Prior knowledge:
The protein has eight helices and ten strands. It has helices at residues 27-37, 81-94, 116-128, 141-150, 171-180, 194-203, 212-215, 220-240, and strands at 6-8, 11-13, 17-20, 41-45, 70-74, 100-103, 132-137, 154-157, 186-188, 207-210. It has a five-stranded parallel beta sheet with strand order 5-4-3-10-9. It has a three-stranded parallel beta sheet with strand order 6-7-8. A two-stranded antiparallel sheet has the order 1-2. Helix 3 links the parallel strand 6 (100-103) and strand 7.
Amino acid sequence: MTADTFEIAGKAYQSRLLIGTGKYKDFEETRAAIEMSGAEIVTVAIRRTNIGQDANEPNLLDFISPERYTILPNTAGCYTADDAVRTCKLARELLDGHDLVKLEVLGDQKTLYPDMPATLEAAEKLVADGFKVMVYTNDDPIAAKRFEEMGCVAVMPLGSLIGSGLGILNPHNIRIILEEAKVPIIVDAGVGTASDAALAMELGCEGVLMNSAVAHARHPVLMASAMKKAIEAGREAFLAGRMPRKAYASASSPLDGLVR
């Protein structure tokens, strides 16, 4: 069997687990969990994490090397399109022209639900400015298609609210998005445990992005290991093709040739 890779912005990846760097007790735990997860793409909240903005503070990149990982700057904490665009430009400056970004524009502090008009506005500006945009969105198939058509390199519908751990609340909408998509669909937000990640992969998603599910676990490094296995198992199950669901029992052995 050939390597089962997927592409984002023309680069192939083997791990379908994308992982965040926030909420750990320290950078050393961050490093250990990410290493255990096997992730190749690591997302960084530019407004909350030092990657060189402050020479007097520990630099995350001393623990998570850009030579080993694809650093994915994100606009967490941005509530307007203009703030998100400025944050991406700062990331590009700090990372020597790096143009792959995760865009999120939030609507309110209680739900952290995406502000869709502002997200669309920011995405349009960033794509026009040469950024490769992976966009956090609600689970609306129409919005997902609009982001794809405007040039976003990946669409990232939420499973449920950021940090909620509620899992994928509307798998039907994720399936509809997948049916129409020609870019990678990556579930982002709401994963709480390994079975949530496996479900996303069984639906046919290209990957899953998570942070809280690992960082807030009782044992983050162990949870990172569990998530790695769940992503792999869910992907294999999707490729294998599950048996049809049936309303009634079906004998596990053939009935022909029974001794009577």
